[in-house]
Amino acid sequence: MRSIPRMIGVWGVLLALVLLAGSPTAPVAATNAVPGFGAGPTTHAPLHQDRSVVVERRDGNVTIEQDGDLRFVETWEVRFDGGPFRFAFRDIPLDRLTGISDWSVRANGQQYQNSDSTMQGTFLVAGDGGSERITWYFPPATNETRVFELSYTVEGALRIYEDGDQFFWKYIEADREYTINNARVVVNLPGSFAADEILTRTYINVEDAGFGEEVDSSTVLFTGGPFPPGTEWEVRVQFPHGVVDAEPQFWQRLADSGPLLDLVALGGSVLLFLGSIVGLYFTWYSVGRDPTVSKVAVSAEARPNVAPGLTGVILDERADLKDILATLIDLARRGYLRIQERDRREDFLYIREHEDTTGLMHYEALLLNRVFGGRDSRYLSNLKEKFYNSIPDLQSAMYREAVEQGYFPRNPQSVRYQYGGCGFALLVAAGASLFLWCRSSLVL
Description:
With about 450 residues, the chain is α+β, with helices and mostly antiparallel strands. It has helices at about 250-255, 260-290, 310-315, 320-335, 360-370, 380-385, 390-405, 410-444, and strands spanning about 1-5, 50-65, 70-80, 85-95, 100-105, 110, 115, 120-125, 130-140, 145-155, 165-170, 180-190, 200-205, 205-210, 215, 220-225, 235-240, 335-340, 350, 375-380. The protein has two domains: about 1-250, Immunoglobulin-like; about 325-410, no CATH class.
């Protein structure tokens, strides 16, 4: 009997056995769950100190049908310490199979009925698109051991390859808070094969852990345990191709193309990242940078036809508080207001001299309106907690004036936002590509 190399992309069955105390006819309440007996999407709190569960054995009998379906019969021997416990559930993810059918539950010789009544002796199957859950309800259990038998058929989970078809299954999941003392899995192959045609392998936490035992030419046995919380156990059998009438499923093709997808995703991420840097550089070089100009004589005088505040916008391409204050002082120089220092040296009084703003640019008239607000005078101390709300409008008006006078082809602030947004979008796209590549490397 030969071993099978480890395959990237192992998928598993999430198992949850959550046992609750309460009325046997009452709806399930998540807050009543005995936590630690769960795997999958449900979140649980720590086990109550006076109640706990131990799985003494979890046995599985798997028959590989001629059509490639897998018929599972699981036997659970569960020891309940404390209680009472009244129901349990089990989740199976659907990402590496095409369907689950023929659910059944037995306990103490009783066949449970499929019903949503939550009565003792019933079970309910429901799915959320990502997984399928069976919940079964039983008579109260306190300080005793119960045996449950679950049966179901899994479709489209067999891996089909020219070199050999494979049953690859995570029988013990890691995401649980209870111990499984013993486990054995019997795999019934779809035919009889020579010993060198059957390959087996087991894995604990994705590390090689040994081989299965060939009971006869058509049966393989795996045994293991104990499995403390956080330990997963996978079993794998390969047998000659062509015995079962099955084709590779889409999920398998996707998993098998994982290395190619990884390479494409990584290459795309690198190209996108480098292309973003190069593209941003050439964009800046062609339209973003200031042109080189020859040196001119330094002059302390501003151009007579350019307002001081607008001059500041032109110099650094930003309308800031200094430019707004320069505009206010220039308006005072031109006689539209007076600024008086009061007896309290930390305060100033602004007095409006002219109501007519006909000759002013829009941002200048807007500044006077925001300072005085219909009044004839205003103390600086009264503006400190209010005027900052007007700054964005004044900045926009100054940018607009600079564009209208031909100093900029577009609003500099809008251009900064546009290219900043493009850069952020490219960064997100590159990060998303890298994330998908990393995720595919882990999952496939």
